[in-house]
Amino acid sequence: MQKPLKQFTKCSSLTTFFIVFVITFSLSSTALTTFGIGKPQSNPPLATTAPKGRECSSNADCLGIAETSCVKDFDYQLRCLCGDYLAPQNGLCKTRVKGLHHQCRLSEDCEDNMICREQNNTKFTEQIRCAH
């Protein structure tokens, strides 16, 4: 009769150990996941658009910003842009070469295969621009 009782005690002690282990683990893991962890802070969204130049209606509006011309931006708005169609950074243009429709003095100011010439456009008072 002693044998079945010993087996019962072995089984009971293993079961007790397993239950204590599960309860201890579940309590400690809950404490670890909730203690000291605040709400995750969301980072501000990154700027996805390039900075825009000053809006203008003629090249006279761009006189204060060297090497810029009043040309249409990608959104078809007239802006003071550098020769590479980018807005000046801290009031300075990275490139000195001018693109299509930019105001120029000499053909050397324009990109390759372009010349500085007078255009038949009466909208702008300064009509000497880079052209093909």
Structure notes:
With 132 residues, the protein is α+β, with helices and mostly antiparallel strands. It contains one helix and four strands. The protein has one helix at residues 2-34; strands at residues 69-72, 78-81, 115-118, 128-131. A two-stranded antiparallel ribbon has the order 1-2. Strand 1 and strand 2 form a beta hairpin. It comes from Polypedilum vanderplanki. This is EGF-like domain-containing protein.
Q: How far is the N terminus from the C terminus?
A: 110 Å
User: Which structural class fits the helix and strand makeup?
Assistant: alpha+beta
SSE ordering? HEEEE
Chain-averaged pLDDT: 76
Q: Treating each run of at least 4 consecutive H or I residues as one helix, how many helices?
A: 1
Oligomer: single chain
Total DSSP E strands: 4
Report the radius of gyration as a whole number of Å. 37 Å
| Beta-strand proportion | 5-15%
Tell me the overall shape: rod-shaped
Strand order of the largest sheet: 1-2
For the largest beta-sheet, the strand count, sense and barrel status come to: 2 strands, antiparallel
* Helix-residue proportion: 25-40%
Poorly predicted ranges: none
